[in-house]
Amino acid sequence: MATRSFAGTVNAPDFPDSVEWINTDRPLSMADLRGKVVILDFWTYC
After folding, report:
1. How far apart are the first and last CA of the chain?
2. 3-state DSSP helix/strand/coil percent for the chain, to nearest 5?
3. Contact, 23 vs 41, CB < 8 A?
């Protein structure tokens, strides 16, 4: 199996301060999530 290198990729930006968080007691940052598996679920209300 070939190894894929991520060298030179762009890191994800930090979350804006205006984001409303659900099911957490404080806002999260990318540094808090580093090294963890993260699933983001984006909702839209039409």
Report:
1. 44
2. 10, 0, 90
3. no
Alpha-helix residue ranges (DSSP H) falling in 1-46: 30-33
Exposed / middle / buried, residue 3 (Cβ in 10 Å: 0-12, 13-18, 19+): exposed
pLDDT digits (tens, 9 = 90+) for 17-35: 888 888 888 898 999 988 9
Distance CA 31, CA 33 (A): 5
Are the C-beta atoms of 21 and 27 separated by less than 8 Å?
yes
Q: Using 50, 70 and 90 to split pLDDT, how confident is the model at 1?
A: low
